[in-house]
Amino acid sequence: MSTPTAVRPAPPAAAPPADRPRIRWVAAAAAGLAVLLAGTCLVAVVQGGTWFADGALIVAVVVGLGIALQRLPAAAVAVGQLLGALLVLTGLFGDDAVAGFLPGPAAFGAFAEHVTEAAAQIDSGVAPVVPTAGMLFLITAAFGLLAVIVHAVSVSAGAPAAAGVPLLCMVAVPAALSDALLPWWAVTCAVAGYGLLLVARDGAGRRGSALVTGGIAVVAVAGVLGLLLGSAATVVGTAGRFVSGGAGGGSGGAIGLNPFTSLRGQLTQSEPVELFRTTGLPRPTYLRALTLSDYRANSGWQAATPRPGVPLAGPLTEDPAEGERVQVAVQNVGFRDYWLPLYGQPESVTGVDADRWAYDRSSGIAYTPRPREEEDWQETAVLPAPSADDLRSAAGPTRVDPAYRDTSGVDPRVAQIAADVTRDAATPFDKAIALVEYFTGPQSQFRYSLETAPGSGDDALVDFLTVGRAGYCEQFASAMAVMLRTQGVPARVAVGFTAGTEGDGYRSVSTRDAHAWVEAWFPGHGWTTFDPTPLTDGRTVVPPYVLEAVADAPPGAEQPAVPQEEVPQPEPQAEAAQPTPEPTPVDIPQPDPTAADQDGGVPVLVPLVALLVVALLAGPAVARRVLRKRRIAAAAAGGPGAGRAAWDEVLATSRDRGSAVSDGDTVRGTARAVVAAHELDSTAQDALREIVRLVEAECYGDEPPAEDALTGPLQAVLAAIGGSGRRGWKSGVRTLAPRSLLTGLRASAQERTPAA
Q1: If you average pLDDT over residues 108-136, what whole number do you get?
Q2: 612 CB neighbour count, 10 Å cutoff
Q3: Is 661 a residue whose pLDDT tops 80?
Q4: Domain shared by 543 and 612, yes or no
Q5: Neighbouring residues of 577: CB distance < 8 A, sequence distance ≥ 6
Q6: Within 13 Å of residue 113, how many CA atoms lie on the same side as its CB?
Q7: How far apart are alpha carbons 613 and 611 in whole angstroms?
């Protein structure tokens, strides 16, 4: 008797069998990934990316423990995950950890200090805040706690839809704290993570559940596409669409938000916090923490990654300037950061951990890979004291990084205003004095205010110079440094503190003294301080050379007229000056906490790559699920090919569960192998016998199964095979990489029919 050829199964019309046991490996991984994708929304309120790396570490530990402890009761799993998260927090933030990660007696005290520091920063800071140690601790702990909660709800309790409530908190908090809309790609990631959590749920085997899961996937994909298209389609203004610039700032009247947001937060504190007590200074002097060299139009000044530095023991300066050499002692009262504030031109620093700090001579920054709080330190420094004539006559080669003269992206109107202000200045020093007088002189139209006037133009710096004319040190220092560069004078912005107030034998520096000013470079004298901020509270330190230059100015000198409301618009392709090639960046093994990406925050490529990786990992499992649904639908529909579809699915499920049964034997011989491989009980054996009978009747009696004749037996056999064997990490691997799919690809050129 000839053997009939099997017919290919029809498209799916039924759901997978019921009571399929859940494979928690996949669900646990999906829960962790959903937490991380939702956490990307924090980019709107925290600078840099170090916080995400710490969050990913603690989430990975929580997920791993959830998989390893899955055979225990749900409460025991949660306790184990919380203990694991505690060990991670101790290893990252506990300075007195036993063996590097075990919480010692002082660990919880350190945690309390971090929480206090984070609370103070939240109270005074303006988003996006600098990731201080306290803020990093709080964010990392939040990631860990959220991962435990989501795992308990979605995996242990089997209610992934309810996990959307804690995940929503990770989105709602930055949405409430940030003045700007969340980046579109961060919201896209959050939506995709929730959709993945729903699609990856296990144990849903009731009839129709596959359709529900498919609908969830469609909704998630639709949400992602809607966000992408919405961001691209709405191009007028920022209201009504997610900003694509992340947290890096915008043109709403602010010249730069990064890293000045922390500075502004300190200035607006209701109660100032003391940071330093210094002794040994002969006169009030500014205390510099870091310098900013990279200006980006409508985004502001950014801190470049420090270059590999020299030890703080010195010598720190290759060509020290002339001036008064001083020994300064700094007592740290409450300062913890990546930067070590220093006075003047430092020659050497002692009293700190030499292995953790380095000094970048180009930027004048002392830095460390992770924020630290040193008890105190001693600095030997030179306080330059050139005269106005010395700076006017400064001559020689300009041995300074070309980046400090870069005017790329500067609006031509800014260059024109600077040229008008300095048109009577004969030397670079006189240009600097003209700009200082432009902002602070008796005829200045500018005023100091922590509230900046919103601009309506296309360039924030032009708006400040022509319309708003009100701001605090950020705006004034930023504007003067850019204007000096347009006139060929190397300039940068310095961020730190004013001289503070006199105490009992010391000077006290507090958060209220946070400040920004300008440093211009002169041959033979190096970086020289100018302060263009019109402070009226006595905190400004006016250098002697500025006083001399102002006194030498002719009486009755008027400020040049500059454009008011009507400002000439720039030509479409006009530039202020030819861009100066930037130096080749130098990679160093430490984070740059104050410099965000060029687009503000995490690059868009990162989430797109993450989504691509998820798609590649889930691809085989999705393909296997589709094939399973087609076979089950064909078997339930009855008719020619129904028996073959049911038999193929029995063999595929057996292979996916780790057995090595072959379809080269007779149907009955293969069935006996399946029973032995999975230790099927009597109920499942009876169902398998019924499938064998119907398959043989179709193949050799030309009697196709009737509709739904295979549904009950097939569901029972698949449920029994799926429930066999031990649960563990191998089960999850088999789900992501089904063995039957590979076998089917190898045999795709052959269609075999079971023999008697």
Answers
A1: 75
A2: 10
A3: no
A4: no
A5: 407, 410, 415, 486
A6: 14
A7: 5
pLDDT value for 530? 96
Beta bridge partners of 466: none
Rounded to whole angstroms, the Cα distance separating 622 from 441 reads 71
* 315 and 407 together in one domain: yes
Position with higher pLDDT, 195 vs 303: 195
Task: Say yes or no to pLDDT of 6 above 50.
Answer: no
**Token pair listed for 137:** 């601790």
Are β-strands 514-522 and 507-510 bridged in parallel, bridged antiparallel, or unpaired? unpaired
Establish if 94 belongs to a structural domain: yes
Tell the residue number behind the tokens 């705006």, with chain if given. 475
The span from the CA of 470 to the CA of 467, in Å, is: 9
User: What pLDDT is stored for residue 709 in this prediction?
Assistant: 87
**pTM over 0.70, yes/no:** no
Q: What is the pLDDT of residue 744?
A: 56
Q: Is the peptide bond before 579 cis (omega within 30 degrees of 0)?
A: no
Same domain (yes/no): 403, 332:
yes
CA distances from residue 613 to 58, 72, 608, 619, 625 in whole angstroms, order as listed: 21, 31, 9, 10, 19
Radius of gyration of the chain (CA): 34
To the nearest 10 degrees (0 to 180), the angle between helices 642-656 and 667-678 is 30
Residue 180: its pLDDT value, please? 64
Q: What single-letter amino acid sits at 115?
A: V
- For 87, how many CA atoms within 13 A lie in the half-sphere containing its CB? 14
Rounded to an integer, what distance in angstroms lies between the CA atom of residue 240 and that of residue 227?
12
Least confident of 587-591, 614-618, 744-748: 587-591
In a domain, 580, yes or no: no
375 & 516 share domain: yes
What local confidence, expressed as pLDDT, does residue 566 receive?
A: 44
- Residue 58 belongs to what domain range? 24-201
pLDDT band at 742 (very low <50, low <70, confident <90, very high): low
| Alpha helices, H only, 540-587 | 544-552
Three-state SS at 756: coil
Pair 544, 619 in one domain: no
- Residue-wise over 17-35: b if at least 16 C-beta within 10 A, else e? beebebbbbbbbbbbbbbb
Q: Total structural domains in the chain? A: 3
What is the reported pLDDT for 593?
38
Q: Write the DSSP assignment of 197-218 as a string of letters.
A: HHHT-----STTHHHHHHHHHH
Check whether 187 has a pLDDT greater than 60: yes
Say how far apart CA 195 and CA 160 lie, in whole Å: 10
Q: 475 and 452 in contact (C-beta within 8 Å)?
A: yes
HEC assignment per residue over 84-129: HHHHHHHHHHCCCCECCCECCCCHHHHHHHHHHHHHHHHHHCCCCE
Q: How far is residue 188's CA from residue 211's CA, in Å, rounded to a whole number?
A: 24
Domain boundary among 201, 230, 248: 201
Would you say 297 and 461 are in contact if contact means Cβ atoms under 8 Å apart? Answer: yes
The verdict on 494 and 619 lying in the same domain is no
**Is the Cβ–Cβ distance between 554 and 468 less than 8 Å?**
no
Residues in the chain, total: 756
Q: What percent of the chain has pLDDT over 90?
A: 21
Question: In terms of domains, do 470 and 347 share one?
Answer: yes
Residue with tokens 């494979």: 23
Q: Is the model's pLDDT at 4 over the cut of 50? A: no
- Which of 160, 181, 201 represents a domain boundary (last residue)? 201
Q: Is residue 18 part of a domain?
A: no
Question: pLDDT (tens digit, 9 = 90+) per residue, 241-290?
Answer: 233 333 333 333 322 233 554 454 455 555 778 899 999 999 999 999 98
What mean pLDDT comes out for the span 82-101? 77
Separation CA 665–CA 677 (nearest Å): 15
Identify whether residues 383 and 484 lie together within a single domain: yes
How far apart (Å, rounded) are the C-alpha atoms in residues 115 and 96? 17
Residue 461 lies in a domain: yes
